[in-house]
């Protein structure tokens, strides 16, 4: 099969005909509401459609518009987001909604220069909102589209932003300029998700295979080059401290990993340190207490972008009463704790504690 020169009309027609027949029916494709499209684009960043769907529906039920979201306390927003990961996305949604409320009367602006100044609005998100909601001629270069274009152009490199300039130039040549930009962007994203997949691309089902230089050269399976990732393994120990049916929790800093989430007191195990020694040191540093007795409860694993965390939870009895820092450390019942935004590892510990309480009540 020979590689065709650029034929814009033919390329667009074949891609759009395929999309019309094969696209998935997703809720954010049934609206032109810029707020709903914005929320979907943020949720879909580094997250699968299957994982996003229940969160998206719940989010719009609780926060149906910019105004509602802007006036909701951040802690409630983070709680609703809990489980999706990359919590900075939720914080940016919340902060941007307040800026849109105050500066634009809760109406999402229709100009790129204004959108790009809002928290969380990178080039891809801004282009998606403008093209999908307002049908403006902006190319969307997300992970799926980047992979499609790299194979079409045969860019044998890793998929990163260093190649975006050449890919955007290539993409703009195909982009409808008068109308239909949003539909074209959707089609290209869907092609990457369903056909031009990361592994085992379904090339024979591709409507634009004749334009693909990677397929012609037989190198589509190795484009883009895989990323080399060095995961940092971390062991963390936490103390489960209980008093009159309530558990001691504390809030993480507002910057850094898992910012503003709540967790049980504890921290990283140092090299050569036993788990019990790490537990006692951390509780002394954070609460100025001495541990009288500890009992191992559960070990949980959780993965983040660059970290692999093993979390060890110990039930602790203290020698002295902790002096809590206002608004940062609190005593909370398990039932109330369910309302707090917590990291996934802490959520697993909470599930364990609830199950343990349930078993104990059944035995009584």
Poorly predicted residue ranges: 1-5
CATH top level class name of the largest domain: Mainly Alpha
Q: Can you write the helix and strand succession as a string? A: HHHHHHHHHHHHEEEEHEEEHH
The total domain count is 2
What is the averaged pLDDT score?
A: 91
Q: What Rg do the Cα atoms give?
A: 25 Å
Largest sheet features: 7 strands, mixed
Molecular shape:
elongated
**Which percent band covers the strand fraction?**
5-15%
Tell me how many strands there are: 7
* Span between termini: 75 Å
CATH domain fold name of the largest domain = Endonuclease III, domain 1
Total number of helices: 15
Structure class:
alpha+beta
Give me the CATH superfamily of the largest domain. Hypothetical protein, domain 2
CATH architecture of the largest domain: Orthogonal Bundle
Helicity, in percent?
40-55%
Folded structure, characterized:
The protein is an alpha+beta fold and 364 residues long. It has two domains: 8-222, Orthogonal Bundle (Endonuclease III, domain 1); 232-363, Nucleoside Triphosphate Pyrophosphohydrolase (Alpha-Beta Complex), CATH 3.90.79.10. The chain is built from 15 helices and seven strands. It has helices at residues 8-22, 34-43, 49-62, 66-70, 74-81, 88-104, 112-115, 123-134, 143-153, 164-174, 181-194, 213-217, 275-287, 334-337, 344-363; strands at residues 232-243, 246-251, 262-263, 266-268, 291-303, 307-318, 329-332. Strands 1, 2, 3, 4, 5, 6 and 7 form a seven-stranded mixed β-sheet that branches. Strand 1 and strand 2 form a beta hairpin. Helix 2 (34-43) packs across helix 3 and helix 9 (143-153) crosses helix 11. The longest helix has 20 residues, at 344-363. The radius of gyration is 25 Å and the shape is elongated. 33% of the residues are buried. Residues 1-5 have low confidence and may be disordered.
């Amino acid at each position: 099969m020979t590689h065709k020169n650029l034929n814009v009309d033919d390329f667009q027609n074949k891609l759009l005909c395929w999309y019309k027949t094969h696209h998935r029916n997703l809720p954010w494709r049934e609206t032109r509401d810029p707020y709903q499209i914005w929320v979907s684009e943020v949720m879909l960043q580094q997250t699968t459609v299957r994982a996003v769907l229940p969160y998206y529906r719940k989010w719009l039920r609780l926060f149906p518009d910019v105004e509602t979201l802007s006036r909701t306390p951040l802690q409630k927003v983070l709680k609703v987001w809990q489980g999706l990961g990359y919590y900075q996305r939720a914080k940016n949604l919340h902060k941007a909604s307040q800026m849109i409320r105050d500066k634009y009367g809760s109406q999402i602006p229709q100009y790129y220069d204004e959108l790009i100044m809002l928290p969380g609005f990178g080039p891809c998100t801004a282009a998606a909102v403008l093209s999908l909601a307002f049908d403006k001629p902006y190319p969307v270069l997300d992970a799926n589209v980047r992979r499609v274009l790299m194979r079409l152009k045969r860019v044998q490199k890793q998929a990163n932003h260093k190649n975006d300039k050449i890919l955007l130039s290539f993409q703009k040549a195909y982009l409808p300029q008068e109308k239909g930009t949003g539909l074209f962007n959707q089609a290209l994203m869907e092609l990457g998700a369903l056909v031009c997949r990361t592994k085992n691309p379904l090339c024979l089902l591709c409507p634009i295979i004749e334009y693909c230089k990677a397929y012609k050269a037989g190198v589509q399976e190795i484009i883009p080059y895989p990323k080399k990732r060095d995961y940092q393994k971390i062991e963390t120990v936490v103390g489960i401290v209980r008093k009159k049916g309530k558990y001691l929790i504390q809030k993480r800093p507002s910057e850094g990993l898992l910012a503003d989430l709540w967790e049980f007191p504890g921290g990283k195990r140092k090299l050569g340190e036993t788990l019990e020694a790490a537990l006692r040191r951390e509780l002394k540093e954070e609460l100025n207490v001495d541990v009288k007795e500890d009992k191992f409860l559960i070990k949980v694993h959780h993965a983040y972008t660059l970290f692999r965390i093993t979390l060890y939870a110990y039930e602790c009895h203290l020698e002295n009463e902790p002096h809590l820092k206002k608004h940062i450390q609190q005593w909370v019942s398990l039932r109330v704790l369910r309302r707090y935004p917590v990291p996934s590892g802490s959520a697993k510990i909470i599930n364990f504690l609830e199950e343990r309480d349930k078993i104990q009540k059944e035995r009584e």
